[in-house]
Amino acid sequence: MDESDAAPLVPGRIVELRVQEGDTVRAGDTLALLTQGTISAAYAERRARLAAARARLADLERGSRSAELERAEADLAALEAEATRAAADLARAERLAQDKVIAAQELDRARAAAQAAARRRDAARATLALAREGSRRDQVQVARAEVATAEAQLAAAASDVDELAVLAGVDGVVLGRHADPGEVVAAGTPLATIGAVARPWVRVYLPAKLLATLPAGSAAEVRLAAAAGSPEGAPLPGRLGAVRPTAEFTPRAALTEEERADLLFAVRVELPHPGGTLRPGLPVTVRFPGATP
User: What is the CA angle 249-204-202, rounded to 5?
Assistant: First the structure.
């Protein structure tokens, strides 16, 4: 039968190996689970990043809250009062300076204070206007792009997490288990071998003269070797499949040139309807009804 190895795509430590030799599995079944700190940490980080990006977008789409507007209005009122006082102080300082009551330095200080207060008032007005307008469209677009990027990064991290699970690629039987929980394995290390029991085949060796009389797809009869004293069962239908292109010598020692001329070819006899009676390694007898002696 065809065999395939189940191996992880990423390195890691085996946490769980769920199969034993002889177990029947279906394609897609989880055979083993691995863990790797880097992959798990990256997934947690990207999930948190996506949550933060979504929260920021929701806040921008919701716009300014009433409490923020009230605070901006209160700040502006206080700064307007401060700017009014500073302007009044500057007007008084200008009169006193004109009457030579105060020095020019004091007038300069009053003028600088009035200008600074006016700038703070203007900044507060802009802040209040922005709060009343809500989030700008370009800010929302940037936030949406950040969410999309975070979603893509999380999807990539989730794909890495999925690769920590080793799945069966075909329906079949576990022929071998090659690792145990707790082992650290590299990517591509076989953890189990699966035999595709739904597509069994038999390898037989045919002499060149006999093979020449059998076209591809020729019918074959396959019988399980019966136990001593037991009757033979009904033959299983098969067909001639792939033929190995390179000839082989006879299995026994070929001592003479004449014996070396007796070449064999390895052929594959496929059984499309095995009936669930075949197992790997069982001895069988193969007969080709259409073969010409």
Answer: 150
